[in-house]
Design a protein that fits this description.
The protein has a 12-stranded antiparallel beta sheet, covered by helices on one side. Helix content is about 35%, strand content about 15%. It has helices at about 5-15, 20-40, 100-120, 125, 140-145, 145-150, 155-160, 175-180, 195-205, 225-230, 260-270, 285-340, 350-360, 390-395, 415-420, 475-485, 540-545, and strands at about 5, 45-50, 60-65, 65-75, 80-85, 90, 95, 130-135, 165, 220, 260, 425, 435, 440-445, 450-455, 490, 495-500, 500-505, 510-515, 550-555, 560, 565-570, 575-580. By secondary structure, it is α+β, with helices and mostly antiparallel strands.
Length: about 600
């Protein structure tokens, strides 16, 4: 279960809101937040209404496998939506909207925050993506709309990649989110887990006494409170304010049901009788002035402490050097005096060997010295221990015939990569990664190639050529290579290979357990359809006989997909449900 921040604040605002569009919006956001809480892994952090400077997205997900994900929630009903357009704009009864385009402001805001406060590289943009979720709109209803029926399959796939619907809020949600990203698995290449924790805490302040988002901004008060305060102090006979009288425009960051706090104070004081004491907001400046001496004292203590620590380190180093020199001089004097009084006995052979072992690192041993005489060269040294991932890669290293001057491969050294690819356009200071334009190569602790992502087909890499065969569940990685050739991407953080937009997932034994054939590139084969149909209780083989090989097999749930339609299986691998979004399933 992921870490959830600011959920209590959302629930409080939902409970306090009168029914209307604002309450409906909060209901949709809570529904999505609950789905993320139920279906995202423990590595994720979900923040409702993160603390940005200006623009505030509905939800922000931070996860090492998906990066920063901005979620825009639109709790729209079918009757509210008049027309979906291919470019992502939506015509509603309230005018033209562009939900996905709206997230561009959030992306820029988040990027600016990370750049200014953490001073990271421009690669941050790769770690940020956005989606739109319609929690009150089913995908089948979207696909059955007349305007969508006229779209091509490619257009529908492109739209659905970043637009989620109510039926997407299921156990397969995390995988669908991963698939929506153009550059997955990029976050830990820039940020450490410790830095991500700091960022999460900065953007997800839990305190309910902090500036309340949306409804009550830091410099605002509820409109109703303003009206009541104003009317209470009015002299008899003057017109009282009502909700409709507060129609003047406010800054975009302020919601419709809030007004600036300063406006409340001025209006309140203006209406007070002359003999009354005016209310003001001078308490904050007074507290600030009172706290100034404390602030200066704390700064002074920090500076003095830092100076003392620096002085102590220098003195300690100097004392150590002087002590060592005095000890060495005393030892020499002692040896000299001893030599003058008592003749030294010749050292034993064991002593000579011991001295040799202790000082071998400082000696030059002739190249023709016999092996027996340099037994002391058996110095103890530690070789880096291979990780499980390294051992698997070692088992799977391609034939040496691939390690030519034309290509690099898994296990190639940095020198081999540079001789083949030339000087990298970028060497990361945060991870062991080289970049060639937009393509990247990952190295392990031994500086051997362990992963890559060939975004722009620049990398001269090879695991082997395709032999035109097919692969299936439980196929080995070598069988996948024989079928598909060299993958365009090998993930650093999961056992996944990518061929353009399509993905193949392997288990711990490096056998195929799942795939997603987005662009119909994979040579998969579970069997051909023979024209039969399936129903509840059918086996997977009966589904194959009816539908053929699925376009997607989920890694996270027992679900198969045929284009946009899905079939769910029980633990016994029998059909327990389906969603025939595009009318392709042969059910009876």
């Amino acid at each position: 279960m992921p870490k959830i921040l600011r959920k209590e604040l959302l629930i409080n605002l939902l409970n306090d809101s009168p029914y209307g569009n604002t309450k409906k919006g909060y209901e949709g956001e809570l529904k999505v937040l609950n789905a993320l809480e139920n279906h995202l892994p423990s590595s994720s952090t979900v923040i409702w209404d993160p603390i940005f400077n200006k623009y505030k997205p509905d939800l922000l997900v931070i996860d090492p496998n998906i990066g920063f994900l901005i979620v825009e929630v639109k709790n729209w009903s079918q009757s509210f939506v008049m027309n979906f357009n291919k470019n992502g704009t939506v015509l509603t009864s309230d005018g033209q909207k562009h939900p996905l385009g709206q997230t561009d402001n959030y992306i820029n805001e988040l990027n600016s925050f990370l750049q200014s406060s953490q001073n990271y590289s421009t690669d941050i943009y790769r770690t940020i993506t956005s989606i739109v979720i319609f929690p009150d709109f089913k995908k089948v209803d979207f696909l059955n709309r007349p305007e969508v029926q006229g779209w091509t399959l490619t257009t529908r796939e492109s739209f659905l990649k970043n637009h989620f619907f109510e039926d997407d809020l299921n156990p397969n949600l995390f995988q669908k989110i991963r698939n929506s990203k153009k550059f997955p698995d990029q976050l830990l290449k820039i940020f450490s887990m410790e830095k991500l924790e700091i960022i999460s805490s900065m953007l997800g302040v839990e305190s309910l006494t902090s500036p309340t988002p949306k409804v009550l901004e830091g410099n605002t008060v509820p409109k109703l409170q303003f009206i009541e305060s104003n009317n209470k102090n009015l002299p008899k006979g003057e017109n009282k304010l009502d909700v409709e009288s507060l129609t003047s425009p406010f800054p975009k960051i302020l919601e419709e049901n809030a007004v600036p706090k300063q406006q409340l104070i001025e209006s309140n004081n203006k209406r007070l009788p002359n003999k009354g004491v005016k209310k003001s907001s001078n308490l904050l400046p007074i507290l600030f002035v009172i706290s100034l001496p404390v602030i200066f004292l704390v700064i002074f203590i920090i500076i003095i402490t830092s100076f003392i620590n620096s002085w102590y380190d220098v003195a300690k180093t100097h004392h150590s050097e002087v002590g060592y020199q005095e000890s060495h001089d005393n030892t020499v004097i002692s040896l000299e005096s001893t030599r003058n009084v008592v003749p030294l006995e010749p050292p034993s052979s064991s002593t000579v060997l011991e001295d040799k072992l202790n000082n071998i690192e400082n000696e030059d041993i002739p190249i023709d010295t016999p092996v027996e005489s340099v037994i002391s060269e058996e110095k103890t040294f530690t070789t880096p221990l291979a990780t499980d991932k390294d051992e698997k890669e070692a088992e799977f290293l391609p034939n040496s015939s691939l390690s030519s001057k034309e290509f690099f491969t898994l296990g190639s050294t940095k020198e081999e990569v540079e001789s083949i690819m030339g000087t990298p356009t970028k060497i990361s200071s945060y991870s062991n990664q080289w970049s060639y334009d937009f393509s990247t190569i990952e190295f392990n602790d031994q500086d051997l190639v362990t992963a890559w992502t060939d975004y722009d087909q620049k990398l001269k890499v090879s695991l082997g050529d395709s032999k035109g065969s097919s692969f299936t569940l439980d196929s080995t990685k070598q069988q996948v290579i024989d079928s598909m050739g060299t993958p365009s991407s090998i993930s650093l953080y999961s056992n996944q290979w990518t061929y353009d937009l399509s993905t193949i997932d392997f288990n711990d034994s490096d056998l195929v357990v799942a795939w997603t054939d987005y662009d119909q590139k994979l040579n998969t084969n579970l069997g051909d359809a023979i024209g039969s149909s399936f129903s509840l209780g059918s086996t997977k083989q009966q589904v194959i006989d009816s539908m053929g090989t699925p376009t997607s097999i989920s890694l996270y749930s027992n679900q198969w997909s045929y284009d946009f339609s899905t079939i769910d299986f029980s633990e016994n691998n029998q059909v327990i449900g389906w969603s025939d979004f595009d009318g392709k399933l042969k059910v009876k």
